[in-house]
Amino acid sequence: MSLGYDDTPTIPESVYKVHDGDRPQPKVVTPIEWSQENFYMLPPSDAVVLFDGTDLSGWTKKGDESTPAGWKVENGYMEVVPGTGDIQTKELIGDCQLHVEFASPEVVKGDGQGRGNSGVFLMGKYEFQVLDCFDNPTYSDGTVGGIYGQYPPLVNSSRKSGEWQTYDIIWEAPKFDETKLLSPARVTILLNGVVVQNAKVLQGPTEHRITTKYVHHDAKLPLSLQDHGDLVRFRNIWYREIGEIK
Ligand code: MG
């Protein structure tokens, strides 16, 4: 059984197709260890907190600012309510350092892309995959830590199903003038303290089953999280703006 697709286009400057089942699997690496019971990293002093575990007042339904986010909040985390749709921040975010913690369901259900699927979408357009990839092979450009449909993670530093995991994402948004792309997006990502993307240049917004190209957008846009139908949890979400010292 193929893990991916064989009827998709070849990714530019790559020998692989989009979601290629034959693209090598990322090597499994045991991540930084911490106590699952007690650990909670407090944000740095200049962070903008997007979710502190109490409520979703800083979020709406994606693409519909007048509809509240439909996910539930309990015990200090938010959890996807399947069918209520993706959610997005009211905050508009450009270049940033982003911290997100997530957990896939403890009770393992489904496989491949159907196990603990969600996603962190910078600017609502660029997906860094959330997936339960603990002993769960799937097409490598769709594994956790992957830039969906473009680049697999360097390694698979997943924690066990149900455990809290950390994403630390250093994001440089694409820059446009009125008519053209001036510089593409670039991202560095740590999954559970392990580098999985190193200053990777994105080909465009992430897409399913097709190749991609940039389309002009604003310098700051909401961050969104994906409702892919699985009971994925999130907590402790914050970002810091990154600018240059003038
Ligand atoms: Mg996803």
Relevant CATH superfamily: Exo-inulinase, domain 1
Overall 3D form:
globular
Per the CATH scheme, the topology name is Jelly Rolls
Q: State the major sheet.
A: 8 strands, antiparallel
Q: Percent range for helical residues?
A: under 10%
In the CATH hierarchy, the architecture is Sandwich
SSE topology string = EEEEEEEEEEEEEEEEEE
For the record, the CATH class is Mainly Beta
What is the CA-CA span between the terminal residues?
Answer: 55 Å
**Structural classification:** mainly beta
> Count of helices?
0
Uncertain spans, ≥5 residues at pLDDT below 50? none
What is the strand tally?
18
Mean pLDDT comes to: 95
Ligand inventory: magnesium ion
Amount of beta strand: 25-35%
Topology:
Blueprint: E1 27-28, E2 48-51, E3 59-61, E4 64-68, E5 72-74, E6 77-79, E7 87-89, E8 96-103, E9 118-122, E10 126-130, E11 155-156, E12 165-172, E13 175-176, E14 181-183, E15 186-191, E16 194-201, E17 224-225, E18 233-241
Parallel strand pairs: 1-11
Antiparallel strand pairs: 2-18, 3-4, 3-7, 5-6, 6-18, 7-17, 8-12, 8-18, 9-10, 9-17, 12-15, 13-14, 15-16
The structure holds magnesium ion.
The site of magnesium ion (MG) has 8 residues, from strand 9 and strand 10.
